[in-house]
């Protein structure tokens, strides 16, 4: 069957639909799970390569696709199927924006405890497929920890689900975990079911400026172990020496709990609003991510401080993004990544490069389980037609 | 088998290979005692490298292997194969590292769940997932089953607390799945795979800080319905307690007979609610909770750890306790959306009356995880069969209400036949792709989880370049 014969809305693609410089031939706009399946079946028959797209905010992350014939735009899959407030569960199509979802949930005093920036553009599916951590990962985990059920469409059009709409469920393999963070290389995420949390009645941020050197030792460790139970701790550090720390405490009695956290920091301002940089990355044409043992935060900050990148992330989960405000050449970026990777890996951490305009850069470093990942990819997408080449090791 | 055993003996110390029929029989079942099989041979490796060597040997001989921790599983997951090797982790019980600065511990798979908490409790930390079997069950078994516990309502399951896992893959490679690594979340897929994707040989778990304050409340209601309404009201008020447990009258009667837990007399249901967290928060939530439970005819609040233990005593002994009021019983494990609880409980009542089989209900009410105890007299002809029917019908109820056939005990051999009721053939075939990626030869715990899985077959050839149809112009129709 041809794409046209599926009856799904399809238009010719243009320059603006390009994925990391690769211009697809068509853009398909399915409106139902069945339509996604029909498109993928047609693509299988015609050997067309497919890249799924949500809001498109992170479509330039990863390698350019080896080929891309069809951009599968999920924007019409925008229905929130069921918000079972009494069960603290929501089931939604993957094209729903995170903002629209949050608005519906807030209507019943609930939230999905993820903090993707620019939520008016980002989608549920894109958020799952990217699976990065925001500030509150410290308390709530990341997307994979909140996902309880998923419906996916495989490269050959097979529709499969796992999990369900109950929070507790150990029947069968958890395909949701496998697809979370798969960057569109295993299939299309069509629907997702999440566990929710009540919206916290109060929120307070404790914000203070400090010298990185003064962070050595106690304060960060005590923040993480504080029985006042912060939901997040973030550091903004542009130069490796001076930092702003912000601690979020939320829930009932947040106002009462905040002073204890300020005491741990030594001093600070308690506010009801986050600092303007909270959980945000504005420049991501070139973006590095570091993961590190929380106890090695100071060394990590120092290592990053030797580069031109600024650090924004969490000393309690050990995850941060490194942002760059000027241009960088391929040679310089390659050298920075290699040097930083050696330093951070010696601390027991990892450096990856989510976004880079240059292909000469080693984006992932050595991944010891790559052979197993390739075997998974081969089973799910034997024809290499789903976002081919975009992810680790060119999977 | 004889040559395999000889080869195993050359790999492992003498006392690590068990072939004596009497000793083999001690491994013939797990906590689900009505499935039994004598293992072909049992090995007790002491290191990951030994596990890997055993698994490679199984590959050489094309023989299946089954992992076993403490054998407390309730779905027959560790049921051995007569034609296979049972790999028991009881010699791998070292806590290798406790790193409080990074809130982690690295342990061998045979370490018991409780031992981790005991190692860090005096320093104000604990390991959160707390299955009722925590004194005996192994962390390797917990990883395989993605075990939960009474407190998983707030704190999540094993999968949310495992940071990394060294595994021996079904073809005998030793690899580490780490949450920190980029790429597919193989760790997430491995946890809960019931020993079918390999054997965990080293596990890095997350440690939690002990909460500042804990308040445990026992509320006695006249009926299950009233108890259920209170649960809804708690969730509706935006409170996420650490635990909400419920027991019905029959379960209370059993607990009373077994451990004299002294729950309020005449209760149709008791609710145990535990709030924990920062003192100021717990205090506020407790005030709300008191309000919500105003319909309870008695409310007890534990003032100290001893009183807390007294409240939990009845609940924790409930499974074993029904032995006091019934000669035989089946422990069922199913899940429904929490809001469907009242309807499902009423339907269980009807089933019970219709088949003349008593059902005692104990459940994790906060997350809709039911543990109906289906009671019968095995001396009475036909009673066992009727109990089976009721037990199976309860799972059907769970599926009908959009729930699950297992919330924490796993599928194992016991429930594989229910999988097609919950999942379509396409769902199961897709899960099988994961299985085939890890275990193309199907040697790791075969016959568990999936009903008669298909053979993996060859991976279709990877096609590259322009499709012949496109080249010939036929596919350019659009
Ligand atoms: C500082 C910072 C903080 C962040 N915080 C969080 C956070 O707290 N929690 C969180 O979860 N994320 C967080 N993110 C991640 C980010 O917000 C997501 O990547 C974003 O939501 C992507 O959505 P999108 O719809 O624009 O995806 P797109 O840009 O359209 O797609 C992103 C990727 O996903 C694939 N994809 C998209 N839709 C699908 C689908 N339906 N099926 C399969 N593959 C698909 C695409 O092919 C592409 O590879 C953060 C990012 C940054 C920079
Ligand atoms: C009284 C009682 C109360 C219980 N309460 C709870 C509860 O509250 N919550 C709950 O979730 N469960 C509960 N259980 C069930 C059981 O204790 C858990 O499933 C537990 O995780 C099993 O651990 P084990 O070491 O006994 O595993 P086993 O029974 O030995 O094995 C279970 C499964 O894990 C596999 N396995 C074992 N070790 C490994 C390994 N190292 N690598 C890979 N696979 C492995 C086996 O092949 C098998 O499939 C209870 C059981 C009993 C008897």
TrEMBL record, chain A:
Alphabetical keyword list: FAD, Flavoprotein
Record domain FAD-binding PCMH-type: where: 19-199
Domain of life: Bacteria
GO molecular function: catalytic activity; FAD binding
UniProt-listed Gene3D superfamilies: 3.30.465.10
PANTHER family the UniProt entry points to: D-LACTATE DEHYDROGENASE, GLYCOLATE OXIDASE SUBUNIT GLCE
Protein name (record): FAD-binding oxidoreductase
Automatic annotation (TrEMBL), chain B:
PANTHER family the UniProt entry points to: GLYCOLATE OXIDASE SUBUNIT GLCD (PTHR42934)
PROSITE patterns: FAD_PCMH (PS51387)
A GO MF term: FAD binding
Residue ranges constituting the FAD-binding PCMH-type domain according to the UniProt record: 35-210
Keywords: FAD, Flavoprotein, Oxidoreductase
Cofactors, names only: FAD
Domain of life of the source: Bacteria
InterPro entries: FAD-bd_oxidored_4_C, FAD-bd_PCMH, FAD-bd_PCMH-like_sf, FAD-bd_PCMH_sub2, FAD-linked_Oxase-like_C, FAD-linked_OxidoTrans_Type4, Oxid_FAD_bind_N, Vanillyl_alc_oxidase_C-sub2
Listed Gene3D superfamilies: 3.30.465.10, 3.30.70.2740, Vanillyl-alcohol Oxidase, Chain A, domain 4
Regions that span the bilayer: none
Protein name listed in UniProt: FAD-binding protein
Signal sequence residues: none
One of the Pfam families matching this protein, by short name: FAD_binding_4
């Amino acid at each position: 069957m041809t794409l046209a014969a599926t009856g799904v809305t399809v238009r010719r693609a243009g320059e603006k639909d390009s994925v990391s410089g690769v211009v697809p031939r068509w853009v398909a706009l399915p409106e139902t799970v069945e339509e996604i399946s029909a498109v993928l079946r047609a693509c299988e028959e015609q050997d067309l390569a497919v890249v799924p797209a949500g809001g498109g905010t992170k479509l330039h992350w990863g390698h350019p696709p080896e080929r891309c014939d069809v951009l599968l735009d999920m924007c019409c899959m925008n229905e929130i199927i069921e918000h079972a407030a009494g069960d603290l569960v929501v089931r939604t199509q993957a094209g729903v924006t995170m903002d629209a979802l949050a608005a519906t949930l807030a209507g019943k005093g609930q939230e999905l405890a993820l903090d993707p920036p620019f939520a008016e553009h980002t989608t549920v599916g894109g958020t799952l497929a990217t699976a990065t951590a925001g500030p509150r990962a410290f308390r709530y985990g990341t997307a994979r920890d909140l996902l309880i059920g998923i419906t996916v469409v495989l490269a050959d059009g097979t529709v499969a689900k796992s999990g369900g709409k109950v929070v507790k469920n150990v029947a069968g393999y958890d395909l949701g975990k496998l697809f979370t963070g798969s960057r569109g290389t295993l299939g299309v995420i069509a629907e997702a079911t999440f566990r929710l949390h009540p919206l916290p009645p109060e929120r307070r941020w404790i914000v203070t400026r400090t010298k990185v050197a003064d962070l050595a030792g106690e304060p960060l460790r005590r923040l993480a172990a504080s029985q006042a139970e912060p939901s997040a701790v973030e550091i903004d550090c542009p130069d490796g020496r001076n930092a702003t720390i912000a601690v979020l405490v939320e829930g009932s009695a947040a106002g009462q709990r905040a002073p204890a956290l300020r005491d741990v920091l030594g001093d600070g301002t308690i506010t009801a609003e986050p600092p303007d940089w909270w959980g945000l990355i504005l420049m991501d044409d070139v973006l590095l991510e570091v993961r590190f043992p929380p106890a090695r935060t100071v060394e990590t900050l120092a290592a990053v401080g030797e580069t031109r990148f600024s650090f924004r992330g969490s000393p309690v989960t050990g995850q941060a993004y490194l942002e760059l405000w000027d241009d960088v050449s391929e040679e310089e970026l390659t050298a920075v990544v290699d040097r930083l990777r050696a330093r951070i890996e010696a601390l027991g951490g990892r450096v990856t490069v989510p976004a880079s305009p240059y292909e000469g850069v080693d984006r992932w470093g050595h991944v010891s389980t790559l052979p197993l990942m390739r075997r998974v990819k081969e089973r799910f997408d034997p024809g290499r037609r789903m976002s081919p080449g975009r992810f680790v090791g060119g999977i | 088998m004889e040559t395999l055993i000889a080869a195993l003996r050359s790999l492992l110390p003498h006392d690590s290979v068990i072939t004596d029929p009497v000793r083999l029989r001690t491994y013939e079942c797990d906590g689900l005692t009505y499935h039994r099989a004598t293992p072909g041979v049992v090995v007790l490796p002491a290191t990951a490298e030994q596990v890997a060597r055993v698994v490679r040997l199984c590959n050489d001989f094309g023989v299946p292997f089954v992992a076993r921790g403490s054998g407390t599983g309730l779905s027959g997951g560790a049921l051995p194969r007569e034609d296979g090797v049972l790999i028991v982790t009881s010699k791998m019980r070292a806590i290798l590292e406790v790193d409080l600065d990074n809130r982690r511990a690295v342990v061998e798979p045979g370490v018991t769940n409780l031992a981790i908490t005991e190692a860090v409790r005096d320093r104000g930390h604990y390991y959160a997932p707390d299955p009722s079997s925590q004194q005996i069950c192994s962390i390797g078994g917990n990883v395989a089953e993605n075990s939960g516990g009474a407190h998983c309502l707030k704190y999540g399951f094993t999968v949310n607390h495992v940071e990394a896992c060294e595994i021996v893959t079904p073809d005998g490679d030793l690899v580490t799945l780490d949450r920190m690594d980029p790429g597919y979340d193989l760790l997430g897929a491995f946890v809960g795979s019931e020993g079918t994707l390999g054997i965990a040989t080293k596990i890095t778990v997350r440690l939690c800080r002990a909460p500042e304050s804990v308040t445990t409340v026992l509320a006695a209601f006249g009926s299950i319905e009233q108890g259920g309404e209170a649960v809804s009201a708690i969730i509706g008020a935006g409170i996420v307690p650490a635990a909400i447990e419920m027991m019905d009258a029959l379960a209370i009667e059993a607990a009373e007979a077994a451990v004299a837990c002294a729950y309020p007399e005449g209760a149709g249901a008791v609710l145990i609610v535990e709030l924990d967290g920062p003192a100021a928060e717990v205090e506020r939530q407790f005030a709300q909770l008191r309000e919500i439970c105003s319909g309870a005819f008695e409310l007890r609040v534990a003032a100290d750890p001893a009183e807390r233990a007294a409240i939990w005593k009845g609940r924790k002994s409930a499974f074993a306790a029904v032995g006091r009021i019934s000669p035989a019983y089946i422990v069922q494990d199913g899940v429904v959306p929490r809001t469907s609880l009242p309807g499902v409980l009423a339907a269980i009542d009807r089933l019970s009356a219709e088949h003349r089989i008593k059902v005692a209900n104990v459940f994790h009410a906060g997350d809709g995880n039911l543990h109906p105890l289906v009671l019968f007299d095995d001396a009475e002809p036909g009673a066992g069969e009727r109990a089976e029917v009721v037990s199976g019908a309860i799972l059907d109820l769970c599926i009908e209400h959009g729930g699950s056939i297992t919330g924490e005990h796993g599928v194992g051999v016991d429930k594989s036949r229910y999988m097609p009721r919950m999942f379509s053939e396409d769902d199961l075939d897709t899960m099988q792709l994961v299985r085939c990626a890890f275990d193309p030869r199907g040697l790791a715990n075969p016959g568990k989880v999936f009903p008669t899985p298909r053979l993996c077959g060859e991976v279709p050839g990877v096609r590259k370049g322009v499709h012949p149809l496109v080249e010939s112009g036929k596919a350019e129709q659009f």
